[in-house]
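Reminder to self: tokens first, then the designed residues, so the page reads top to bottom the way the pipeline ran.
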């Protein structure tokens, strides 16, 4: 009886061992296949310094691991110095628009091995106190990267702050500027929803959207309401065009980024002169959350914070129509300036 039990135990151990070995071999083969599909990431762009250097994909993946350990405090700056990692000023900035999808765009672009993102909004150019600290303070807020990678930061307040275009121009007159927009009325309601949620967390009351968006005395759209004013995209863009040519801007369709992100990301890759590296493999639809999540490799994936994709309150249809009619002429001018047309009402 004991002999049969021992034989049965050996058989089970053999089966488990075979499964474990098979799993390891599969993972090794899978990683090898990925590396063969994308063996190198040549950074041949306006951002690159002249030279034939190419950064191997494995090196870039290793770099991400080193930076992760640095952020956790497990690696010192002295330890990463041999890897030629530096803190660079951004060569592209997502300047807006608030509630247009700036966080989603930044996280999705970070899928590209040649892109390194600043995790937090720096608010350097729109905050007088931060700006007074100087450009080296700003550089110190940037992540570590290889010299041939590009650093991207995002601060949506940049788009609507008057002083920002001139300040960014003084830093880098040839910088690439990304603007992600959504249908203006939808964006305004989303803006309101975020503020409303913050008020509710503090047990504070807040006016209904209709009361804020429409002046009760004149029954006209209230352009003093910040959520409405931010959605007049052309007014803000015209201020930026005093310093930068339209060719240095790329407009991202925030509505499309939600439903079909890959084509939008490929357009951004082209605008930034980056080799195409983001693929459908990196994006998968999460049915539970209701939007796309990110897959960096076979081990690591990421979804945006739960605060994204808030449910909007119901808005009086008459107010929605009034806002859409108000925004329409501004939208037409925005299409004309940027050369990109949207199916907005």
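Designed residues (345 positions):
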């Amino acid at each position: 009886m004991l002999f049969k039990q021992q034989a049965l135990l050996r058989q089970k151990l053999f089966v488990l061992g075979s499964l474990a070995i098979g799993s390891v071999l599969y993972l090794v083969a899978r990683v090898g296949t990925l590396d063969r599909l994308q063996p190198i990431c040549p950074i041949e762009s306006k951002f690159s310094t002249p030279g034939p250097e190419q950064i191997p994909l494995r090196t870039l993946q290793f770099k991400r691991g080193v930076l992760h350990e640095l952020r956790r405090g497990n690696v010192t700056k002295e330890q990463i110095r041999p890897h030629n990692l530096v803190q660079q000023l951004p060569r592209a900035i997502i300047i807006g628009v608030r509630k247009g999808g700036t966080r989603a765009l930044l996280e999705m672009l970070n899928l590209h091995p040649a892109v390194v993102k600043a995790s937090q909004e720096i608010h350097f150019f729109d905050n007088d106190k931060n700006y007074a600290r100087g450009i080296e303070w700003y550089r110190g807020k940037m992540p570590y990267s290889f010299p041939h990678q590009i650093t991207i930061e995002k601060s949506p307040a940049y788009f609507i702050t008057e002083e920002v275009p001139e300040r960014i121009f003084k830093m880098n007159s040839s910088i690439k500027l990304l603007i992600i927009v959504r249908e203006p009325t939808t964006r305004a309601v989303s803006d309101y929803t975020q503020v409303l949620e913050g008020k509710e967390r503090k047990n504070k009351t807040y006016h209904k959207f209709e009361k804020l968006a429409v002046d009760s005395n004149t029954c006209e759209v209230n352009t003093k309401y910040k959520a409405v004013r931010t959605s007049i995209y052309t007014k803000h863009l015209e201020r930026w065009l005093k310093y930068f040519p339209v060719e240095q801007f790329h407009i991202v369709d925030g509505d499309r980024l939600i439903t079909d992100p890959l084509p939008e990301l490929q357009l951004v890759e082209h605008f930034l002169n980056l080799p195409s590296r983001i693929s459908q493999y990196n994006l998968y639809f999460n049915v539970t959350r209701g939007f796309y999540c990110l897959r960096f490799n076979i081990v690591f994936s990421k979804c945006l914070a739960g605060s994204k994709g808030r449910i909007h309150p119901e808005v009086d249809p008459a107010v929605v129509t009034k806002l859409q009619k108000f925004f329409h002429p501004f939208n037409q001018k925005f299409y004309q300036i940027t050369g990109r047309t949207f199916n907005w009402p």
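Confidence is low (pLDDT under 50) at residues 21-59.
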